[in-house]
Design goal:
The complex is a heterodimer of chains A (about 850) and B (about 110). Chain A contains 33 helices and 13 strands. Chain A is mainly alpha-helical and about 850 residues long. In chain A, the strands form four sheets. In chain A, strands 4-3-9-11-10-13-12 form a seven-stranded mixed beta sheet. The longest helix of chain A has about 35 residues, at about 55-90. Chain B is mainly alpha-helical and about 110 residues long. Chain B has a three-stranded antiparallel beta sheet. The chains are: A mainly alpha (about 850), B mainly alpha (about 110).
């Protein structure tokens, strides 16, 4: 019996020891390591005493142990976490703010010295205009940019700078500030190196990043919104780095907020998120499981996205630029649209947020053949396109006129790649998590972005194999990769600094001095001159100093249009600069611009209708120039007296009707009208007759333009930008009169025109208004600045059509002068034509 | 650790060591007796406190009695100073309470 009792006692003792051992597991490892055996001894003593007290005492003992564990174990875990954090925080490096500020000021100075004085081509006119009138640009609408830019413009207004220059300064400032954070991030990564080494490394990184061609070329004008994305990306990276040093959760939360706020500028800014998550995971994955992080971040993310509400609120006020018109019926539907990213809620706002208008092809399909798979050849070409842009970054002026891997430029790019490899390696060795974050951001913003964007064939890629321009992008798209090029530049800069450091160490060894000796560093300093290569070789191409080309182009086009004229345009470059000069500089606000690619979107047709309708009595459209009211008046103030005389000094009266006097139902019908002319179709527009050739595909654009001509011919002068595919399809070319940079439809009884014969009619026009064209070309047009200097290149080959337009005009003038026997006049036009063709 | 950071448990642990070195169980029992069972330390609470007191330099490990294999602890000079200051603070509090007739006068 006693033996059995002994066995039971032994088993009970073992069991209770094992149970206590389980309770010990609740405590932090460090505590267990130091005191587990003592605690077991204490337990043994407590148990021995409790046994004497019987079952009740033993039960009380276990309750006491359980209670003690429940109370003290969490406290010990919390204390252990604090001890770990304190161990990490025993040294929180202070950022080199002075160095960063100097670097940022240097970058700002560079961009200011090369700043565009006015608008530029492509989207610059659109963005400067929407900033000024608080309008809505093309989808996704960029509400954060609009609000920021307008506030910025107002803030700088006491300085007396023109509107365009103020908005361009926003781009420069954002980019400069981005480089401040880039400096801080790189400098921190280079610790524990000495201050000089860190500053040299960070400065080289900033220099290569800021002078990368696309970064520079986008920072000295506000052509896009990506400099804001650059700023938020660099800020988020820095906040993550700072969180690592301080373990202050608020910094991570701030990074999340900034990133999501950036989404309301452009989704580009969100692409840094995977890199930051990877960084946090590599430093302390438990931070990602922090309930406080998610509980605080989620409401802030919702708050950040609320900036999108600007779109429906402002759209309802009918701003003069109101692309996609994201008006909503209720705040609730607008909110649903925002927080479901367009999956639910207000249809118009959803269409804007999801960029429905652009009908982006799926990643798996060929953008040129919807439904067909995206082949390896196309994917390879998309990466070749990216390589082309990479090749531009470091030495754009080398064989600059050969934008496709011209001259020695690829060799320089290869050298830069080697520097990037050296810089990446140095970064990895100095600060692995930061290098991982940098590399992940690079991957997302370059290679992954190429795959996501799924472009058509690049503007210049495979032109021989695919001559159809519709199979190619309409312009070069290097700007999409701006942030990636900045990050490549940073690594290249680090590579240069690494070479310098190694050279200094070798020199020091030979000189038998210590490695950090100033003499050895100075001796190796010439290597740092490599960091100035992009600055020197990109300046001529990136600078926009004295570049009035786009602004003057817009002025010259609008002056080619007679009072209250309609101007039918083809795309960005013959529309957005015109929007700028009308709405910001208030030049020729009377002209109705009809941007044909937008016509099939009914929102645009409605806006054209409403902006050109006659004003009600007592309504002055100039009371609020930021909104669509009615037809704006023609004013003689800004018109050259010779042009007024050439127009016959008539007091132009406002038209009585809109250019599109149709109701919503009729506009909807026109927007849906596709057909093929099964036979020749005769059209009549007042006294004008035209024929649509059999087999011509007639699209909604053609239907709308035909309706405009039908409604306005005889009431308003109707002009087309040249060449005009829609005028050709509608058979109107034979009535086209060359007037300055446009074609005008010949009006009844118009005389004094020089008729053109033969094939030349297709390019020159059927007639030339010699008097008007000569007056415009000689006395009215403004051509100044950079474009007049043959030493300065025409940077963007994708808009070579602009100088070609001038060239075409002068060709028409020369031919007309020849036909009239005016040799002097012809020679003058030929000289001007050759000037423009030679750009 | 300043006097202001001393919790009642920690103060009584230091008090228990004021008489001389002791091992964990002895400290536990001394505290229970001293407080008439009001403070009953569990192993987790006791050794969590001992760990912090060691890190703060208020107690240190010492050799136990001959033949005793258990780890013993004793007050350091700093620890003695801390517990003395805390005791004087509590004494001042008690005098304050006596002055307000919240406690009986000395000797009564």
């Amino acid at each position: 019996m006693s033996a059995r009792r002994e066995r039971v006692r032994t088993r009970t003792t073992s069991l209770e020891r094992a149970l206590f051992g389980l309770l010990l597991r609740a405590y932090p490892a460090a505590l267990r390591k130091d005191h587990a055996s003592e605690m077991a001894d204490v337990f043994a003593d407590m148990r021995a005493q409790a046994i004497r007290g019987g079952f009740h005492a033993r039960a009380t003992l276990w309750l006491r142990l359980l209670g003690d564990t429940v109370r003290s174990a969490p406290v010990e875990h919390w204390r252990a976490r604090r001890e770990r954090a304190a161990a990490t925080l025993c040294y929180v490096p202070a950022p080199d703010s002075a160095g960063a500020i100097v670097a940022a000021l240097g970058v700002f100075l560079l961009y200011w010295l090369t700043l565009a004085p006015t608008t530029a081509f492509w989207d610059a006119g659109e963005y400067i205009t929407v900033a000024h009138v608080l309008g809505i640009p093309h989808p996704p609408g960029n509400p954060l940019f609009v609000m920021l830019a307008r506030a910025w413009e107002l803030l700088l207004s006491p300085g007396g700078w023109p509107v365009a220059e103020r908005v361009n300064l926003l781009s420069a400032s954002c980019s400069a500030l981005a480089h401040l954070f880039l400096f801080l991030t790189i400098e921190r990564s280079l610790r524990p190196a000495d201050l000089t080494t860190r500053r040299i490394g960070a400065t080289c990184a900033v220099l290569l990043s800021a002078t990368a061609f696309t970064v520079w070329h986008q920072s000295n004008v506000n052509e896009k919104v990506y400099t804001i994305s650059l700023l938020t990306t660099m800020l988020s990276l820095w906040l993550a780095m700072r969180w690592r040093d301080t373990r202050n959760m608020k910094l991570l939360i701030a990074a999340a907020y900034v990133t999501m706020l950036s989404a309301t500028n452009h989704l580009m800014g969100v692409l840094v998120a995977p890199a930051i998550l990877l960084f946090v995971f590599s430093v302390d994955r438990r931070a990602l499981l922090s309930p406080r992080l998610w509980a605080t971040t989620l409401p802030l993310v919702l708050l950040a996205l609320s900036a999108q509400l600007f779109l429906p609120v402002r759209a309802a006020q009918r701003p003069v630029v109101n692309e996609s018109d994201p008006t909503c019926e209720s705040l609730l539907s607008a909110t649903a649209s925002i927080y479901t990213n367009g999956a639910r809620g207000c249809p118009a706002l959803s269409a804007t947020l999801t960029r429905e208008q652009y009908d982006k092809p799926s990643l798996l399909h060929d953008p040129n053949a919807p439904g067909s798979p995206r082949g390896a050849t196309l994917i390879a070409s998309q990466f070749v396109n990216y390589a082309q842009y990479f090749d531009w970054q470091w030495a754009r002026s080398v064989a600059g006129k050969s934008p496709l891997f011209g001259g020695a430029r690829p060799l320089i790019s290869l050298l830069v790649l080697l520097l990037i490899a050296a810089g990446a390696r140095a970064h990895w060795r100095a600060d692995r998590p930061a290098a991982l974050m940098h590399g992940a951001a690079l991957f997302t913003l370059s290679f992954a972005l190429v795959l996501y964007l799924n472009f058509k064939w690049g503007f210049l890629i495979a032109r021989d194999a695919f001559p159809d321009p519709d199979m190619h992008e309409v312009r070069e798209r290097d700007y999409f990769f701006l942030i990636g090029f900045s990050l490549w530049g940073a690594w290249a800069g680090l590579g240069i600094a690494t070479l310098w450091r190694r050279a200094a160490d070798r020199i020091a060894a030979r000189m038998s001095v210590r490695a950090a000796a100033p003499s050895s560093r100075l001796a190796a300093a010439p290597i740092l001159a490599l960091a100035l290569v992009p600055l020197a070789l990109n300046w001529g191409w990136a600078s926009r100093t004295d570049d009035w080309t786009a602004r003057d182009w817009a002025y010259n086009v609008l002056m080619s249009v007679e009072p209250y004229g309609v101007l039918v345009t083809n795309g960005d470059n013959d529309s957005f600069p015109l929007w700028y000069i009308q709405n910001v500089e208030r030049v020729r606000e009377d002209v109705t611009i009809v941007l044909t690619p937008y016509l099939p979107t009914t929102w645009y047709a409605h806006q054209v209708r409403d902006a050109s309708r006659a004003c009600d009595v007592g309504v002055d459209p100039l009371d609020d120039r930021t909104r669509i009211t009615c037809q704006r008046p023609f004013t003689r103030d800004s018109i050259h007296p010779r042009l007024l005389a050439a127009w016959g000094n008539v007091a132009a009266a406002p038209p009585e009707d809109s250019v599109l006097p149709f109701d919503a139902g009729e506009i909807d019908l026109m927007a849906d009208s596709w057909f093929v002319a099964e036979q020749d179709l005769a059209l009549r527009f007042g006294t004008l007759e035209s024929t649509i050739a059999r087999g011509t595909m007639i699209s909604p654009i053609d239907t709308f333009v035909a309706a405009i001509v039908q409604s306005s011919y005889g009431e308003r002068p109707i002009h087309f930008m040249t060449p005009s595919p829609v005028a050709a399809r509608l058979g109107l070319t034979r009535h086209a009169v060359r007037v300055g940079l446009t074609w005008k439809l010949r009006e009844p009884g118009e005389s004094g025109l020089q008729e053109v014969h033969g094939e030349e009619r297709r390019t020159v026009g059927a007639y030339v208004d010699v008097a008007l064209t000569d007056t415009l070309a000689r006395d009215v047009f403004i051509v100044r600045g950079r474009v007049t200097d043959p030493a300065k290149p025409w940077v963007d080959h994708a808009n070579y059509s602009i100088p070609m337009q001038y060239s075409l005009m002068h060709y028409a003038g020369a031919r007309a002068a020849e036909m009239r026997g005016d040799r002097v006049g012809a020679e003058w036009h030929v000289e001007r034509m050759e000037f423009w063709s030679g750009l | 650790m300043s006097t202001l950071d001393l919790s009642p448990q920690v103060f009584h642990i230091l008090l228990a060591l004021a008489d001389g070195p002791a091992h964990g169980y002895a400290i536990m029992q001394a505290v229970e007796v001293e407080t008439d069972g009001a403070i009953r330390l569990g192993p987790g609470t006791l050794y969590g406190a001992i760990r912090r007191l060691r890190a703060d330099g208020l107690i240190e490990e010492t050799a136990g009695d001959a033949g005793d294999v258990r780890r013993c602890y004793r007050l350091t000079r700093r620890g003695r100073g801390v517990v003395q200051r805390e005791a004087r603070r509590l004494e001042r509090l008690v005098e304050s309470a006596r002055a307000r007739r919240l406690l009986p006068a000395r000797g009564t």
